[in-house]
Amino acid sequence: MSRTLPPLNALRAFEAAARLGSFKAAATELHVSQGAISQHVRQLEDWFGQPLFERHNRRVALTPAATAYLAEIGPAFDRIASATSRYGRGAARTRTVLRVSSVATFALRWLVPRLERFRQRHPQADVRVDTSNEPVDALREAYDVIIRGGPDTFYGYTMQPFLAEQRLPVCSPALPAHAPLAVPADLCRHTLLHASTLPRAWDDWLAAAGVPELAPAAALTLDHFYLTLQAALDGIGVAMGPTALVAEDLAAGRLVAPFPDLRLPSRSYCCYLPQHKAGDAIVQAFAQWLVEEGDAAGESRGS
Questions:
Q1: What is the pLDDT of residues 10-42, one digit of tens each?
Q2: Selecting from 3.30.70.20, 3.90.25.10, 1.10.260.40, 1.10.10.10, what CATH number does the domain 8-87 have?
Q3: Where are the alpha helices (DSSP H) in 107-242?
Q4: Does residue 62 contact residue 70 with C-beta atoms inside 8 Å?
Q5: Is 7 helix (H, G, I), strand (E, B) or coil?
Q6: Complete DSSP assignment for 175-208
Q7: Model pTM?
């Protein structure tokens, strides 16, 4: 029985533009000009007899029919790529690029130190980690795995929490040795380290600790959470430490938590996976590995 198929080059251009939400990004991925993508999409729209994209100034949006169509053909493209990787010429040499987007502090202090364990388990995977604080639905580039706080819901993504989180003050052991930190009010003798990405972290903790009006000896604001943690390690002041990301420093004695029972609840770390990657074995393996590592980290700190 013969198959009714649209022009395959046009179909490939549509799938890339629809998945990435951009003709320019599709052109980059397929190594063609943006004009070629536009031409292929118009060819497919003529074949369908209806528009597939709503054109805006700097972006494109899928029509409802195109959204449904992408949900059908996206997994088909993934299966073709997977089968080609397994059975095509040079399959044994084929490597898979796994594109991961993570918030910077988590990548630096938790993900990267553990990545070698994933690589040993899946040596054929080349993991590329990019850092960003952009929300899942605002990213301009396509990723296989996105690590953000949550749980949240985004259209076109599945979500899996894998690591619980709380926040509490941490500092170098040299600080309380110099100026005691017996009660939260003692923070008035110290420098509080703030991260501009989480401007209310200290205010919320001080309110929960019963000293909302506390005035510290000094304050230092840095533009990333990981910089405040480094400043704490260097003895500059007291940082608001995410429990998952400072657990090893606390265990090794590089940091101390002067008020270990006063913890600020926080959002969990979650991985968000594009729904069209549901059949991708490496993507699913990475998500499962995150859950396993998160479970092990929780057990190691007794939570």
A1: 889 888 888 888 888 888 888 888 888 889 999
A2: 1.10.10.10
A3: 112-121, 174-178, 201-208, 225-233
A4: yes
A5: coil
A6: HHHHS--SSGGGGGGSEEEEETTSTTHHHHHHHH
A7: 0.67
